[in-house]
Structure formats: structure tokens, C-alpha cells
Amino acid sequence: MAGRLAVVGAGLMGSGIAQVAAQAGWRVSMRDVDDAALARGMAGIERSLNKFVEKQKVSEPDAATALGRIATTTDLGVVSEADIVVEAVFEQVEIKQRVFMELDRLAADGAVLATNTSAIPITTIASVTKRPEYVVGTHFFSPVPMMALVELVRGYQTSDETMARATAFAEEIGKTVVTVNRDIAGFVTTRLICALAMEAARLVENGVISAADLDTACKLGFGHAMGPLATTDLTGVDVLVHATENIYADSKDPKFAPPESLLRMVAAGHLGRKSRQGFYSYE
User: Which GO terms describe its molecular function (predicted)?
Assistant: First the structure.
């Protein structure tokens, strides 16, 4: 099936999607708004491939070939050449809708238009296009080259053909697909981690248990590889709060209302690993 892929957004997720697709034989055009963003994205791909080479999981020639399959550009018009377009821009509905209005105008007839979102309803994004049947959610997990899962989400008008093509694409680039058949905010995996993380934060906020003991309970009691608060630090406290607020705005379910302590952490800049302080210190 390998064909032409356009990835819109060269950040952590976009560059990861570009890398795994290129390794699977796809010709990839990675687009961002400026050359600096593209240079950062390509540097990240090179570092990732070099690590695979060092661990002897990828040969040097194969890594070089994968890099050679990726072209970078600031011209969004490149999406007109793609069989599949994956949008991987900032997780904000207005930004994604602006991108999809342009994709609707520029992409080839019949192209699959995929959005890499963890919480925003696919139907809301597809509503700004004249071809909602071609819009699908492809929720990749970070870091994309390491994580095997893709959550494939059907929007209200997504066609069976689009679902089949998106599934084939994800499987061809080495991912295991779980299908979400109804378009609800947060889908399945984000709803689960947000509900668990919000309740975990409330228990710590109320003095019931320490963050470390709560994470230990989840690891040893439930077999989780990482506790929900350590996961929050890894993901980014602000990222998880934003995702949870998106779910709450759509569902009005009180379990998705972020507790006050998480909002204060974000306001204080305690965002987890990336700021070296969250539920744990990373100095």
C-alpha cells in the first residue's frame, strides 16, 4: 500500500509519524510554518534513528534510506500530492479547524484526512470540511517510534472505506489498531487516563495518600508500568489538564473537572518532566 503521506506539523508527534511511515516505505512530505520548526523535527528524527542503529534495531543503510524518503516544506500545497494527510498540530480545536479548512481546499479528491488528536471530537474537526466522510481520527501515542498503539476514531460521518484505508495505513507502518466506533470527546484511552489521573490528583490534594504511594499502589496492585501521576508528569500536567478540560466541556461529566491543585500547578509552571517539577522533582 505504501504511497505518499503528508504530515502537517513537525513537532514531537508529527516528526514521529513521519519517521515510522518513512521506515515503512512511504514517501513523506513534512510541513510546518517555518524552517526552524522543520529543522528541529528532522533533527529529532535523526536522533531517533541513530538510537535504533546504536541498539542494532535498524541498519545504517535502512536509517539513511528512511531519512531520504522525508522531504520538508513550508508550503501547505504539498498535501495535494498525498494519498493520506495526517494533521499533527497543537491540540486546540480552533487551530485544527483552520488547518482542515485548508486541507479541504488543497488535498486531492479522495485523500484520507486524518487528525492526530487525543481528545477533540472528530466530527467537530470534520464539520468545517465539505468531505467529512474522508475525515478520521488517528490517535498516535508518544514517542511514536516506540509506542505500538493507534486509536482509530470514527467521526459521525466517517465512511467505512476511510476507516479501512486508515486501518491499513496504521498497520502497514507497524501499529496495532483499536477502533473507537462512536465519536466521544477523549475517545477511550484519554478518557481512561484522565479519569484515573483526576481522581488520583484529588486523593493527593485531600491528603488521603502521597503521590509516590498512589503510583506504587497502581503499579503493584494493577500491574501498571507507570502510576497515573508519574504519567501526568511525563505527558505534561498542562497537556493532561487541557485534554481533560476538552472532555469536560463536551460531556459536562464532573469526574473530568480538573481539581484545583492541578490548575494551580499549571499556573505555577510545574508542568512535570519538561519543567523539572510536577508531582515529582526532576532536578
Answer: 3-hydroxybutyryl-CoA dehydrogenase activity; NAD+ binding
Domain boundaries, the chain: 4-180, 191-274
CATH fold of 4-180: Rossmann fold (3.40.50)
Q: For position 1, what pLDDT does the model report?
A: 66
The verdict on whether residue 142 carries a ligand-binding annotation is no
Question: pLDDT per residue over 88-116, tens digit each?
Answer: 999 889 999 999 999 999 999 999 999 99
Q: 57 is written with which cell numbers? A: 534495531
Residue 241: pLDDT band with limits 50, 70, 90: very high
Indicate if the alpha-carbon torsion angle 52, 56, 60, 61 is positive or negative.
negative
Rounded to two decimals, the pTM is 0.91
**CATH code for the part of the protein at 191-274:** 1.10.1040.10
- Alpha-carbon distance of 42 to 197, in angstroms, equals 33
Q: Is 275 annotated as a binding residue?
A: no
